[in-house]
Structures are given as C-alpha cells and as structure tokens.
Amino acid sequence: MPKPLPRPSRLVSRSALALLLALGGCRLGPGRSAPEPAAMDQAQEQLLQQRLAVLFPELSGPIDRAAIEGLLRRERVALPDPRDEELRSELRAALDAADLARARDLLVERLGTRELDEALALLDSGDAPAALARLDRTAQTLSSSPRLLALRGEARWRVGRAWGDEALIASAREDLAQASLALPSARVFTRLAEVSSHLAAPLPAREAAERAVALAGRLGPEGEAERERARASVQEWRMRAETGATQEELAPSAARARIALEEWLGFAPYDAWAWCTRAELLAATELPGVALAACWRSLEWLPEEPQLHAIAARLCLSLGGPDRLIEEYGRWSTAHPRVALAAWFLAQAALDAGVEQVLGERDGRAYLTLAMREYQRFCSLAPGQAEAAALPLIEAQLAAVWSQIHAGDWVGAERPLIDLEAAQPGALARGDLRVASGLKALEWIGSRWAKGVEDPDSSASLLALAQAGAIYERLNALAPLQPDWANTAGFFLRDLGVAMELNARNACRRGERETADALGLRARDLMERSWRAYESAAWLSPEDARVVNDAGVILTYYLQRDPETAQRCFERAIELGQARLPELEAAGQTRELEELQTAIGDAEQNLGVLLLTLRGDAQAALVHLERCRGMGPDPRPEVVGPGGFLERCRTALNSGADPRVQESERWGAPCAR
User: Fold this and answer.
1) Are 322 and 352 in contact (CB under 8 A)?
2) pTM over 0.85
3) Is 184 helix (H, G, I), strand (E, B) or coil?
4) Hey, what's the torsion of the CAs at 175, 179, 185, 186, to 10 degrees?
5) Whether the Cβ atoms of residue 227 and residue 273 lie closer than 8 Å to each other
6) pLDDT tens, 477-517?
7) DSSP H or E segment with residue 560
8) Phi and psi for 326 in degrees, rounded to 5?
9) Is 214 exposed, middle or buried (0-12, 13-18, 19+ CB in 10 A)?
10) What's 231-293 look like in SS3?
11) Residue 424 in 3-state DSSP?
C-alpha cells in the first residue's frame, strides 16, 4: 500500500487544485505567447477568476505572468516537499523564458498527478467515499485521463457496492472499460471483472479477469486476479448451464472454470468457496466417483467445512445409497476421529436409513443404534452445537421403539418409552418427526394389552387389565386433553378394581383376612384412579352422555360417596339423551335410537340407585327406577328381579327402614369380623 503523501503547501493545496487544473484549458504549445485575458473564453475566464478569488483573496486580475510571479514571491508560502521546490524552480524557469503556457502546463500536470496519488492513497486506506469526492473534483479538468478513469471506476465500484447504488456501479464499469484501453493493468482488469460479475455479465468478466491474470503474471504473482478469474469463469459456466446448454457446449467453460479454480487454490488453499465450487463442478461434469474422490481430498484441507461434507454425502448417496455413505464416512471418520461433522453426517445417514426401515414396518435398529452412537459422539466433539442433535436423537430413539414393535417385542418396547419421557419430558408428544409419536407407540402397546382381556378371572387377563390400565392412565397424564385416553383409562382401571374386589371377597371366604384386606385396599385405590380418569373424560366431553354417566357410576356403585356430583352426572346424561331422541326418531335410525334409549334408561336406573342407597330417598328413587323399565332391550333384572332395587324401594317405603348402604355392605369393605 503506498505511503500517504506529505501535506502539500498552500501553493499546491487540495483546495487550490480546481483553480490550478483549470489552467489546463488554456494550454499553449511551446514557444507560443500567452493570450491576454481578453482573448480567453469569457465563461472560462470568469470561472478562473472566481476560483482565484476564493483561493487567494489577496490577488486580483487576470491569471497572467504577474499573478503567477506573485504566488512564487510570497515568502509566507512554505514548500516542505522537495517536489514543491522542484515545481517552483521549473515555474521560475518557464517564466524567465517568457513561456507562460509552460508554466500553466506544469501546474496542471504536476498537481493533477499529485491529486491522483492522494486519491489512490485514500482508496488503499479504505476511504472510498473521500477518494471518489477527490476524483470527481479532479475530473473537471482531467476528465479524459486514463489513470483518473481507472481510479474513479474503482472508487465508484466500492462506494456503489457499499451503498447498494446500481447506477453508480454501472458508471464504474464504463470508467474501467475506458481506462483499460489506455491503461491496461492487472488492477484495472481485476476491478472490471469484479464489476462485470456483479452486473451479471460473466463472459466480459471472465475475459477481463484473464487479461488481469496475464498482466499480473508479467508483473509478479498477486493472486487477486486469479481469484476474480475463478469467480468469473464459474459464473460463466453456471450461466451457460442455466440456459440449457448441452454437456458438449458446457465442456469448454467447465474446463476453464476448473483450471481457474485450481490456479486460485494455489494462492488460497483454504478458500472454502473454491473447494466447494470445484466439488460442485466435478459432480456436475465428471463421474460421481471421480467427484467423490476429489471431495475427500478437499476435506483434507478443510475437514470442518459443512458444504463440502454435504456434497460428499450427496455423492455417496447417488453412488450406493445410505450403505455407501455409511461405509465411506465410517472409513473417513476412523481416519479423522476428532472431526465432529464426520460424526454428524454418519449419524444422519444411519438415521435416514433406520427411519426408512421403520416406515416400511421393518426392524431398523442396526442403523438406529449407529445413529444414536454417532449423534452422541458429535455432541461430545462439539458441545456448543449439541442442541442440533437433540431432535434427531429423539427421532432415533422413537424409531428404535417402533422397530422393536415391528419385530414383535411390543412388551419390551414400553420401558424405553418411559425412560425417554423421564429423561426428556415432552419427548413422547413430539409430532414433528418422520415416525409416529411416542404417544402413538404407547397407545399401540396399550391396545395390544387390551386384546388380552378375556376371562376376568384368569391371571393373564388380570395382567392385561393392569398393563392396559397403567398405560392408558399414563397416556392420560401425558396428554390430559385427550378425552378418549382418559375414558379408556377409567374403563380398564374400573374393571381391574372390580376383579381385585372380587378376589378380596373370595379371600375372605377362605379366611385369608390379610390377603383380602390388601386386595380390598388395592381395589379401592384402583377405583379412585378410575374416578379421576372418568372425571377428566366427562369434563373433556360434556356432551357425551355415556361418558358423563360412567363417571357417576364410579361414585355411586363403587366409591359410594359424593352423591351431589354423581347426581349431576346422571341428570346431565338424561338431559343429553332426551335432547337427541327427536332427531333420531325423525331420521328413522332404529339402531342408534335403541342405543340412546338404553343409555337414558341406564342413567335413570343409576339415578334411582343413588337416591336409594346414598341419599335414602326411596320415594324419589322409585320414580326413576320405574321409569327405566322398558328403556332398551335389557330387562334390567337387578332392578325388577327378586331382591332388586324396586323391591328394596318398596320395602323401605313400607317399613320405614333406612335403605342407605351400610358400612359392612360397602364395595371393597374389609372382611367381616
């Protein structure tokens, strides 16, 4: 970078340049006498005088010999630069020879050169706006100077790019193109290539860059020209490819781009853009195997470059799918064990292969185990980027569970789901995965257990009930706004509680009091859990008569408490059912109508039982128990049969006895002493 020039004296100050350069407009040939001011162009004379008055207010009159001599005689003008002394001597010699034209030429040429030097220094220091302002002033009298055009073109390019001014960039190209004709240099052609590339003119850009390389080669290696040739050559190749050129037509531009890239890499072996573009070029123009080999060589220079890895992965997949990628990356990763991206791409390939297996309902655990191992290795190598592996790891774990299910081991698939949710709360509910969610997997396992509920007295059935109830209860906790899972949990927990209570009674009859009491406590706990599930289901489905009714059933027949809540449930169920009757009758939907009438009858019966056994109101209970008769195909023997609820109502009314349930008669009561 050129050193900044010393500050010029007042005689050659920056502000005086416009005045002194204006003299160039009246340049005379050698030996000719200077015209008198009256012979000058009137407009030019006026301009000169105005500038002179601004710069040298103590002087007046025309710019003639006397004016210049007056400037030279001024003692207070300091001339610290040897070039100033040289200029002063030459001016004195010209005046002594009565060559006023020569004196004026010296002022224009020497001071114009100095102004351009200072503009160049500003450009090289990074102050392009200041350089452009200086050059625009200089252009008033040196508008055709090739050097001025070259410097102004560069300044306009830098300022236009910084400010997003496309018009200024276009004018920069015009300046540089003109300058290149008279002042061919590596710098001018390099800038012309840059501007042409920006203006989407790849062919002129490449031609300018090649001229720059040729000139730079004669002057010594710089690298900047090679960089622009590489960029312009690649841009030309891409433009031809995008316009539908055939491979034969693309071959010359592709070859030029490849050579240009490789020569630039000789200057900049760690330029990621050049390596990635070269890999892209090879992938598009060479056999995939050749391109892949080039990628691996490139990665020796830039082992952590994501785009290079992405190209290599794409080529591996095109050559042999995930298995080829896993093989290639496994080998490369072994040779570069500390490269985190190698672990990442290996994990990605294994995950994709495993997920594909799962989506085809096959066992992909071999791939998925590898994926999980490599994701964990990536996290250890790049802890700052571990968050990127969080979701893929969840997907790999869930895909492994589905693989286990597809392989037939659905019983063992529950534990990994529970562990995953415990380690990462919310993981099972993720819906942004390619495989079905962990909640769906848990539901699938629960439904398989539910199929095993056949004989309620068998140990296998009890196990199935317990597993199904626990799974749906867990689902209800994980997705508390899902009414179906809440209802199903309540159903299985209720049936399991009923089975436990029955076993407790049998243990009482056998005299096994401790066993019976333990079974009774467990039965009551199951029923409490069933109530919580049904309560949630009824809250989530307030318009579903059967769900609302079932919630009341748990309080009335099993827990035998909270009659106010239970009564609201039954009354609401009856109200909902009655409201739908006209609709089904009008539609002639016989089957649906019978089912609805049965549901209403169930709610009427349950309300009657509640009023009788929990409130002791036999009269009110009788009304509802009579009303439920004939509602639905069920003859309801527990209502109308011997010892049924109707008979108990009449007995209470006739005897005045309290019909409410006694402690010893409660569901799940301890064995009688």
Assistant:
1) yes
2) no
3) coil
4) 20
5) no
6) 999 999 999 999 999 999 999 999 999 999 999 999 999 99
7) none
8) -60, -40
9) middle
10) HHHHHHHHHHHHCCCCHHHHHHHHHHHHHHHHHHHHHCCCCHHHHHHHHHHHHHHCCHHHHHH
11) coil
